[in-house]
Amino acid sequence: MEKWYQLDTEQTEKKLHVTVQKGLSSNQAKQRQKQFGPNHLKSSDKQSRWLIFLKQFQDFMVLVLLAATLIAGMLGEYVDAITIMFIVLVNGFIGYFQEQKAEKSLEKLKELAAPTATVLRDGTWEKLPSSELVPGDIVRVKTGDRIPADIRVVSSKGMETEESALTGESLPVMKHATAMKKPDLEAQDQTNMAFKGTLVTRGWGTGIVVATGMNTVMGQIASLMSNTKKIPTPLERKLAELGKILIIIALFLTGLVIAVGVYHGHPLYEMFLAGVSLAVAAIPEGLPAIVTVALSLGVQRMIRKKAVVRKLSAVETLGCASVICSDKTGTMTQNQMTVKEIYHQGAQIEVSGEGYQIDGNFYINDKQIDDNFADLNKMLLYGVLCNNAALKVKKGQYIVDGDPTDGALIIAARKFGLKPEMERNYRIIKEIPFDSERKRMSVVVEDENKQRFVITKGAPDILMPRLTYILEKNGRGVLKERDRQAIEAAVERMAEKALRTIAIAIKPLKQTDTLEAHMIEKDLQFVGVYGMIDPPRKEVKAAIQECRQAGIKTVMITGDHVKTARAIAEKLELLPKEGLVLDGQQLSAMSVEELRNEIENVYVFARVTPQHKLKIVQAFQERGHVVAMTGDGINDAPAIKASDIGISMGITGTDVTKEASSLVLMDDNFATIKAAIQEGRNIYENIRKFIRYLLSSNVGEILVMLFAMLLSLPLPLVPVQILWVNLVTDGLPAMALGLDKPEEDVMRRKPRSPKEGVFARGLAYKILSRGLLIGVVTLVAFMVTYHHDPDSLTYARTVAFSTLVMAQLIHVFDCRSEISIFNRNPFENVYLLLAVLTSVLMLFVVIYWPPLQPIFHTTFLAAKDWMLILALSALPTVLFGYTKK
Ligand code: ADP
Ligand code: MG
């Protein structure tokens, strides 16, 4: 193996035929992809298709049915035996396809949630799925990222990585770019290499990919690979348990049917076959699979709305959310910062222009100021030097590459006429990056004359205690109390206008001064304050309102100034009159209990650090809330993990937060959370719909048989008919219910309790009452047409069979509403219409196509028969449609 750590950058470039400036060409990348394969660790083997197929028949009752069929075949009932076998086979195929579909959409999920990497290809930086990386790619990583492949670091800005996954050592390792000449270094000592799967805890850097996929150090430690087993969601678990109980009930009732039938003189083997068919039909063995399909179809709908679910169980929990704690910047606002105001040497300067257009001027009291106004050019230059963003041109428009807050400062400087050439005279010697904890950023720069100085910018109240001097017209002065008050007043004035404020300060250094953070960030000299606007996203106000109607509280969380936060909250109508705003200091002083007692009245948390988020989540949870919490930075991960629904940002989010989250917002937009919750509620309602449909159908099937036996009648349905009903009416219509549109009032209901059982809100009653009536009308249809002579038996069975099928197909529309069938437009769900039409067509085929008549024990029906069938089969649905019970 190549010892990459021994090579310097140039040697590495040469070896991999790439330059750090341009990266690979897309052609090169394509070729290498073929050569090296995708950059991921091979996951454990999947279930083979055959196994999934065979699994469909492992069900005990299906095996009994097959055995019974075999016996029937041996006794000479070939037609029945073959038909039953055939139906069982078809059923198996359907189960197989459902499971495949579920599996496939889960795979797709994984792909979507897969990590991305920032890569240099053809000279431009792009975001690509990490799996597409190849050796030679130039990648950029920053705090919170997972290293996407093994890389040789070629530049590092205070980059540290945590490699415990690899070495067990949890202390971060500082990374640098210099070649290391030692002959044999273990991975943990190769400090100019960063390894796939490890975590950037600080700073940022670039590197050349030297190994991908299974060739990485991580890939070699095969034991580290975790099996990605599918964990059943709470609902799936509940249904699996319920399934067991239902099996027992179904077995008991079919046993009863058999016993009563035999008692009344039916031949044992006939009763046995009928009973087992009934059991197979009545046991909702397909329910968990349909639930999975419904969940994953819902997930696909969510993806279209830009919400990517990482854990299937989140789909269920989403519907229960009662509080959304959302970041302000970028989630509720556009994250398109524009400097609108500047406070500098006592003057209040206004800046014109919108967005990232470099088009605007500087005014005091509506009078444009000239180029050499005070030290404004210095202040703007400092803002550009203490900066982590860059301006790029894309399709003739300026865009900001990096933090929009920093971007705004560059735009402001360019508006004032500061040319990029000016900055080239300064060299950055040290950088302490911005983070939400410190709320400030510092750089040490050196000018052409080797004169060094610090530039620090950050939240004004955080900088204030670190200020001793002030930059005045004629040089450095001491910062007096009067100056402090003036600065504070300026900051408040800006914050009340919803402006985000950033103060900037400097300090000259001697060549020999230490560059420790606590030493350079003190006794600073105040230069000015920027006020920048970040307009709310347009859709957010309406989304907050919809959430309120849905019984979901929205809470804004931000690191910004209290007044800025309040002003934006008011714009969004998020803060009611009696609502409270808490700031980070107040939060720190409170215990979780104290917070818990107040939290229902709090709508905005300002000047918070990521640590506070955890406290907020806990306080809400202690009040019994189901909490959704957003986050992007590495420090947000604990709160996201602790919340019921962790939400991360697809664009600005770090890998760590994405991994901790169960939902990723591809557009970072608050409104997407609302859409996801709506979809989550809808999916759950749809699942209720088909559970109701399937179970009431089964109740009907069992009861018609049981009643007939109790009344000493012949079997109203023969085994093949029972199995046919199970196959046709259970399959398609149930699936179509899973695709149903929500009822109008889903977002006007209170959130569902996560403890709610499957049969809550009257579902059990609905299943039993509808099932009972379906059974009764089918029996009535049979009794009216059966004249106690064997000749009419086939005729009566055909009528009963048709009545049962039609009753179920009409009832399926009833299941679409929690209240009444008349509340909904029956033509709304095209899939359902198609499913029902297909089922009716298949019913006609087995009744009217002569070759199938002996197989399904059917006969021609006349128009008057259909009148009876329709009248009876519509009865349950119409009746309950009126009673609304
Ligand atoms: P949020 O993400 O909720 O807006 P942040 O933690 O990003 O909160 O910002 C908190 C404060 O830190 C801001 O109000 C601003 O004063 C300051 N700040 C934000 N970004 C930067 C930056 N890039 N450099 C210096 N200070 C910043
Ligand atoms: Mg921020």
TrEMBL record:
Enzyme nomenclature, EC number: 7.2.2.10
A Pfam family that the UniProt record links to this protein: E1-E2_ATPase
Transmembrane segment boundaries: 245-265, 271-297, 690-710, 722-742, 763-786, 792-810, 830-849, 861-882
CDD domains in UniProt: P-type_ATPase_Ca_prok (cd02089)
PROSITE patterns named in the record: ATPASE_E1_E2 (PS00154)
Domain of life: Bacteria
Positions of the Cation-transporting P-type ATPase N-terminal domain: 3-77
Subcellular location: Cell membrane
Membrane topology value: Multi-pass membrane protein
Keyword Ion transport: yes
Enzyme class: translocase
Keyword annotations from UniProtKB, A to Z: ATP-binding, Calcium, Calcium transport, Cell membrane, Ion transport, Magnesium, Membrane, Nucleotide-binding, Phosphoprotein, Translocase, Transmembrane, Transmembrane helix, Transport
Composition bias, Polar residues: 23-36
InterPro entries: ATPase_P-typ_cation-transptr_C, ATPase_P-typ_cation-transptr_N, ATPase_P-typ_cyto_dom_N, ATPase_P-typ_P_site, ATPase_P-typ_TM_dom_sf, ATPase_P-typ_transduc_dom_A_sf, ATPase_P-type_domA, Cation_transp_ATPase_P-type
Presence of keyword Flavoprotein: no
Positions of region (Disordered): 23-42
Family the entry assigns: Belongs to the cation transport ATPase (P-type) (TC 3.A.3) family. Type IIA subfamily.
The protein, known as: P-type Ca(2+) transporter
UniProt source species: Tigheibacillus jepli
